[in-house]
């Protein structure tokens, strides 16, 4: 249908950016669940967001977008506020929230991995910078 190469426009391009964003979320949540944190400021999630950004998005961003991300980190919520929002305001402990997040990540990670595999098999990935 598409010859030797998959078209790299339209829905293919949109899914490519979506999968990168989903990988950012996955790495970010996994980092929080794994207990990674800034020892000097344990209630900040900048370490987690930075790790996720570096693994999922940074190589696709030019210098200006990278600086915008670094500035946006200062608007990130505290870990306690983030977990409360993730719990939809329910009265649960941090560990209960993290355990539910770990369970969520099992299927979420598997789904993202399949999308990445599909893009690799179809040679549909684009590596340009924005």
From TrEMBL:
One Pfam entry name: GLTP
The keyword Transport is annotated on this UniProt entry: yes
Please report the stretch or stretches of sequence annotated as the Glycolipid transfer protein domain: 9-87
- What's the stated role of this polypeptide? Accelerates the intermembrane transfer of various glycolipids. Catalyzes the transfer of various glycosphingolipids between membranes but does not catalyze the transfer of phospholipids. May be involved in the intracellular translocation of glucosylceramides.
Task: Identify the GO cellular component terms for this protein.
Answer: cytosol; membrane
Q: InterPro entries from the entry?
A: GLTP_sf, Glycolipid_transfer_prot_dom
Q: Would the keyword Secreted turn up in this protein's UniProt record?
A: no
The secretion signal range is 1-21
* Source organism (scientific name): Rousettus aegyptiacus (Egyptian fruit bat)
Q: Where is this chain's protein located in or outside the cell?
A: Cytoplasm
Family membership, please give it: Belongs to the GLTP family.
Question: What GO annotations for molecular function exist for this entry?
Answer: ceramide 1-phosphate binding; ceramide 1-phosphate transfer activity
* Keyword set, alphabetical order: Cytoplasm, Lipid transport, Repeat, Signal, Transport
Instruction: Tell me the domain of life.
Output: Eukaryota
Q: What is this protein called?
A: Glycolipid transfer protein
């Amino acid at each position: 249908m598409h010859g030797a190469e998959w078209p790299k426009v339209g829905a293919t391009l949109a899914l490519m950016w979506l999968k990168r964003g989903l990988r950012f979320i996955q790495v970010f949540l996994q980092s929080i669940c794994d207990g990674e944190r800034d020892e000097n400021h344990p209630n900040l999630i900048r370490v987690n967001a930075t790790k996720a950004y570096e693994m999922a998005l940074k190589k696709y961003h030019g210098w200006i977008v990278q600086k915008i991300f670094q500035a946006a980190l200062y608007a990130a919520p505290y870990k306690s506020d983030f977990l409360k929002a993730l719990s939809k305001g329910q009265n649960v402990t941090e560990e209960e929230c993290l355990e539910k997040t770990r369970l969520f990540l099992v299927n979420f990670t598997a789904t993202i991995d399949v999308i990445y595999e599909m893009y690799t098999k179809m040679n549909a990935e684009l590596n340009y910078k924005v």
